[in-house]
Structures are given as C-alpha cells and as structure tokens.
TrEMBL record:
The active site is at E372 (nucleophile). Its EC number is 3.2.1.86. This is Aryl-phospho-beta-D-glucosidase BglH. It comes from Vagococcus luciliae. Belongs to the glycosyl hydrolase 1 family. Keywords: Glycosidase, Hydrolase. One of its GO terms (molecular function) is 6-phospho-beta-glucosidase activity. The lineage of its organism: Bacteria, Bacillati, Bacillota, Bacilli, Lactobacillales. The gene is bglH. SUPFAM superfamilies: (Trans)glycosidases (SSF51445).
Length: 476
C-alpha cells in the first residue's frame, strides 16, 4: 500500500525566516521583523515588551535572514534536485500591502511572488502557500491594534482577493493562517497583539481569534469562487497531550489541553464553535464579537483539508510536585521520562505523530497534511560546508515510519509531508541560526556573520532517495 501515488513530498519555510530584504521594493515593516535574537525575544513575541521599531541594542535576524529574496532561484533549483513535489512557503503581507490598509497593492511584491511560483512550476513543484505566517503589517498593529480590530478582516479579505486572482493557475494549495492557535501562546508574533497595562488579555486573544477565524472562512469562500480547483487548509501547532499518570485528573488535564488547541480547528473544519469552548469563555467572562452573518460564514466555508506542525508530544499533570519542564514549539511541557530530547529540549516522539494523525483524522474526517516536522540541531560543517547529520536522518526516518503506519495500518488520509526548514533559516522560537533544520547548510551565524553560501548536508541525498521511492527506502 504505502503513500498515495501523488503524495506531496517537500519542505517548508516562512517569508520572515528566510527572505530578508525587509525594506526593499516597497515592503513595509511587519511584526515578525521586530523579534530580536536574545533574552528579550520571548517578552516581545508574547506581547509583554513593546517593540514597534528597531533599536540599537538588539540584533534583528529577520532583516536579512538567509537572503532568499535574492537567491530563491538557486534554492528552488536545490529543492528540485531533491525531487520536491511541493514547496510550502508564505507570502509577506507587507510586500503586497506595505501598510496593510491601502486600496491598491504593491506591484513589485506581487511580481516577486509570481516569479517565485513560476520558478517552482518550471520544475514541476506545486507551491503550497501560507497567506499569513504570523505576518501583520506594523501599520495595522499601531493604527488598529492588529487582530483585536474587526477592520483587519476587511484588509485580509482585500489581500485574498488580490492574491487569489493574481496567482490563479499558479497556486492551488493554500493555508489561511499558520499555527492559528499560537495567538494564545505568542500573541505578538502570532497576531500582532501587544497588551497595554490593565487590558484583559484573554478577552483580546479570543476576540482576535474570532476575527482570524472569520477571515479564514472568507478566504476559503473567495478561493473557491475565484478557482474551484483551489484547495484551502487550516494549520494547527499540534502534538498530542499525554496524561502523566493514569490518575483520572491527569487524563482530564490532558484532554483539556488538547481541546484548547483543537478549538480553532473545530471552527475551521466543522464550521461552528464547540460547546466546551463557549462554556469556557462564558466562565471567563469572554464575549466573542459575533456580528450578524458571522456564524453562517463560518458554517458555510469550512476548509478542504487540515494541516499541522508536529515536533513533539506534550505531558499534563495535576500534581504540583511534578514540575520539571521541557521546551517545545513555543509551548512548554512537563518532561516525559520515557522520551529523549533534542539539544533545545524538544522531546522526540515519533509514535506521538501517529497518535496525533489519528486524533485529528478521527475528529475531522478530512484529508490531513503534515506541513512542519523536523529536528533543530547544531550542525558542524567541514571546510566545504558538508554536514554529516545522521541525527537528523534518524529523526525524520522514524517520523516518516510513524506517518506510514498511520496511513497503511490506521487508514488516515494524508496528502503530503513538508519538513520544516528544508534550508537552514532563522528559528521562530529563539531567533537563532545555529538551531538548524535544513538539508541545505547556510553559512550564517546568530550575529549575522557568514557568506550565506549554500551547501548540501548528508540528509540532502537521503531525502532525495526517500522522495524517489515514495517513502519506501528510509535507510541511511
């Protein structure tokens, strides 16, 4: 059996983590540009520390990133050499609408992505495009308070009209918002939300969530109207929550943690707010800014498929003495004593991917797409930039095996798999370059030094073989 014949193998990046060229060709400033590397990054991305412009005390890696803006042809040629069937990338909103609220788009930005998509098509690579991968033009943050304001729904709708029409025939796979549940965990990075003294943070986060969910439904509606071939997905930062023990309270804590994240996808995939979420908001005194017609829009324009990132599972306990934390994809979690961890403390759990796939497929019965999975590690290149990254190969092979089990044994409908950071890029969580995910090494360090030269790691040819054999040959 194995994977479907048209399985979409590939890799994934985000504009703000790889493009650079933050102020070229009319691009406006965005929230994602302003996250510095270093100890203040956490406070900035969570909306606790105000950083609405660059200062002289921090280094901002997104300004230049890996300069893919000027090197995309070289990079896409390398992806094609690996045999990519798809390349997941994102559009920088402030390239298309520098301020976000203009009536007319920036032609230079539109042309850039058109050329990039044509470059993909030249090699038979299907672009998988994230409309908003955390990007929010800073003008929208400062003037409207970002997604707390309903006006952003209209600006996003305008963006969608422009890109769906411009790229008709070039792009058919779309994601509306990257890791939409990140609003709850890193609100400034996820949705441009900064909190003033005394504000009700929970109210604002869920208010912003409603606006994004509405915008997602509108995007799905427009996409299907412009081109019936368009396939639109939602995107979740996923990872099953385990109970630390079989104590029922721990099991319930894990269930509640899962629901907090599924809530967004319940709306995007099923078309309505789940009862548990409405009750929880009622208890917290959160009032969703629902207007006439909102619920009908959500109901009538659900997504075609469910995509997600998976790096690790998480653990929940109600015992305060069990408090050893480990890192994760922005989310912290209790340490799982049965798992090993990466150099950044992310727990490695391939079976957790199979569990997550089954949980999502059971819940939504829609095709799934793994659009991020990978191992962030310190790579040591030789003088030619070659890295023997057996640890990465092992991590990916084990996760692909688990994914295969979900498809072959459990019957999960899986569209494709794009590894995160197929070329080394700036880490979203830490802003570091030394936390590398790619099959392609980029000569650049945390301080922005280096030649930006690209070179293939050992995993490059390994992944090429995986794609050639449709996931049958995972040997190192």
């Amino acid at each position: 059996m194995g994977f479907r014949k048209d399985f979409l193998w590939g890799g994934a990046t985000a504009a703000n983590q790889c493009e650079g060229a933050y102020n070229l060709d009319g691009r406006g400033l965005a929230n994602v540009d302003l996250a510095p590397v270093g100890p203040d990054r956490g406070a900035v991305i969570t909306g606790e520390m105000k950083m609405f412009d660059f200062d002289d005390n921090h280094f901002y890696p997104a300004k230049e990133a890996i300069d893919m803006y000027h090197r995309y042809k070289e990079d896409i040629a390398l992806f094609a050499e690996m045999g990519f069937k798809t390349y997941r990338l994102s559009i920088a909103w402030s390239r298309i609408f520098p301020k976000g609220d203009e009536a007319e788009p920036n032609e230079a930005g539109l042309k850039y992505y058109e050329d990039l998509f044509k470059e993909c098509k030249k090699y038979g690579i299907e672009p998988l495009v994230t409309i908003t991968h955390f990007d929010c033009p800073m003008h929208l943050v400062e003037k409207y308070g970002a997604w707390r304001s309903r006006e952003l729904v209209g600006f996003y709708e305008n963006l969608c009209h422009v890109i769906f029409n411009r790229y008709k025939g070039l792009v058919k796979y779309w994601l509306t918002f990257n890791e939409i549940n990140m609003i709850l965990h890193a609100p400034f990075m996820g949705a441009g939300l900064y909190f003033e003294e005394g504000e009700d943070k929970e109210q604002i986060k869920y208010q912003a969530a409603h606006h994004e969910l509405l915008a997602s439904a509108i995007a799905t509606k427009i996409a299907h109207e412009v081109d019936p071939e368009n396939q639109v997905g939602c995107m979740l930062a996923a990872g099953a929550n385990y109970a630390y023990t079989s104590k029922p309270e721990d099991v319930w804590a894990a269930r509640k943690a899962d629901r907090e994240n599924y809530f967004f996808i319940d709306v995007q995939s099923r078309g309505e707010y789940p009862a548990y979420a409405l009750k929880e908001m009622e208890r917290k005194g959160i009032k969703l800014p629902i207007e006439e017609g909102d619920l009908e829009l959500l109901k009538e324009h659900t997504v075609d498929f469910v995509s997600f990132s998976y790096y690790s599972s998480r653990v929940q306990s109600t015992d305060p003495s069990i408090n050893e934390q480990t890192s994760g994809n922005i989310f912290e979690s209790l340490k799982n004593p049965y798992l090993e961890a990466s150099e950044w403390g992310w727990q490695i759990d391939p079976l957790g991917l199979r569990i997550t796939l089954n949980d999502l497929y059971d819940r939504y019965q829609k095709p799934l797409f793994i659009v991020e999975n990978g191992l962030g590690a310190i790579d040591t290149p030789d003088e030619n930039g070659y890295v023997v990254d057996d640890y990465r190969i092992e991590y990916l092979a084990e996760h692909i095996k688990a994914m295969k089990d979900a498809v072959e044994i459990d019957g999960v409908d899986l569209l494709g798999y794009t590894t995160w950071g197929c070329i080394d890029l700036v880490s979203a969580g830490t802003g570091e370059m030394k936390k590398r995910y790619g099959f392609i090494y980029v000569d650049r360090d945390n301080e922005g030094n280096g030649t930006l030269k690209r070179s293939k790691k050992k995993s490059f040819n390994w992944y090429k073989k995986v794609i050639e054999t449709n996931g049958e040959d995972l040997s190192n």
